[in-house]
Amino acid sequence: MGGRAAPNEIPIADIEEGSGDQDNRAEKWFDIVDRKLGLSAQKIERRSWLYSGESRLTTQFTRVCASGRPIWVAAYRAEEPTLHHILWQSTAGDKTPDGEPIGIHQIAWPGSGKCDTNLYHGTLKELAAAAARDDLPYPKKEIIKIIRKGVAAELHTELDVTGVTSAQGAEAAVQAQQALAELAQQVTDLTEYVKQHLPDPLSMEPAGTR
Predict the structure, then answer these.
(1) CATH of domain 12-137
(2) Where in 18-174 does DSSP place strands (E)?
(3) Given CB 3.0 to 4.6 Å as the disulfide criterion, which of 15, 51, 63, 126 pairs with 72?
(4) pLDDT tens across 132-143, in order?
(5) Are 85 and 127 in contact (CB under 8 A)?
(6) Which residues pair with 53 in a beta bridge?
(7) Sequence ranges of the domains in the chain
């Protein structure tokens, strides 16, 4: 394993088997993954997540759950788990032999049908922010700096043999638009003047009618 996680890419340990206390096992995984992906220096809520069922989380991962690390809990019932979590998987879309839905929020998703459904208390933007990290792969300030540098270079690159740059072309376009706007206003003002000071040709009597 190497490299760095992409922006908004979340490493998640999915541990759904094993007997006895599993804290050491999960923490070993987190240590390796967070270190390899450059997450160890982040606050714990910005590091790798843990996914498991509610029963395992409350009995086999007590230390991890108390650490503040993001938790994704699976509990297929009507009541939401009380343990600290970011996502609650409330159903897998399955039914009992009697045809009763297992869990709640079962939705026939377009293209997928009834499948895993998760609940998050917040907006999609807030959920994205919960996973976002400023240092992956570059800090936001560095990204802005790179963009500004690229735009500046593009604006000052000559478009053709005339030596005109994008910035100069854009400035000329703005000036032309302003000139056209001024001309249009002059035409409007002239039209209004004619209406007010000259007689309406349609109201004038034809020559020779008197």
Answers:
(1) 3.20.20.80
(2) 49-53, 71-74, 87-95, 101-103, 108-109, 113-114, 117-119
(3) 51
(4) 765 555 556 665
(5) no
(6) 74
(7) 12-137, 141-198
